[in-house]
Amino acid sequence: MRTEAEFTDLYESHFSELAAQVCAYLGDATEAQDLVQEAFLRAWQRWDKVGGYEEPVAWVRRVAWNLATSRHRRNQVARKFLQKSQAPEPAPAASPDHVALVAALKQVPHKRRQALVMHYMADMTISAIAEETGAREGTVKSWLHRGRKELAALLADRNDDTTAIRTSALKTEAAADPDTMPIRIRRGARVPRPAARRSSVKEDRS
Predict the structure, then answer these.
(1) What is the H or E stretch that residue 6 is in?
(2) Which of 74, 119, 149, 178 to pair with 56, CA 20 to 30 A apart?
């Protein structure tokens, strides 16, 4: 069985030439390098066998060409599909409200930001968010409650007349919970605080 040092020597000696060959076939240098790297990775995963071949580079070359051929066929299919399809209409420019919202969300800690986006923009229920993130439902409610307060304060500081998070359709159980109601913030208006309540779930401090 050949050693790791011999694999490294094989890679350093033949990567460039194989990438150049595949690039000439595909016409894309970055794509060619990715495919040759994948071929070498597969060789390393089977190095106890491939390393014993008389010419391991021949095995790597064959795998690289097989990958390139598959990629070329997929690209051809994609090109034919795009040629037959109509170009999509340009996406409308983002509204000032949306720009302000995205800027404010960047300042909210990761977990609370993720919960806000999942709940208010992706219309996911609290139970679905809990399953997706691996957190308890009570923790998700805490993220939404604290994240909403932080976001409201950030948006209230901006110069927009009206900035809001609008939801398409809240689930019945989510709409019944004061911690998951839609956010609508108007400049100069005081942000109402939800009624205090006891919780057995320790709040996330991130």
Answers:
(1) helix 4-26
(2) 74
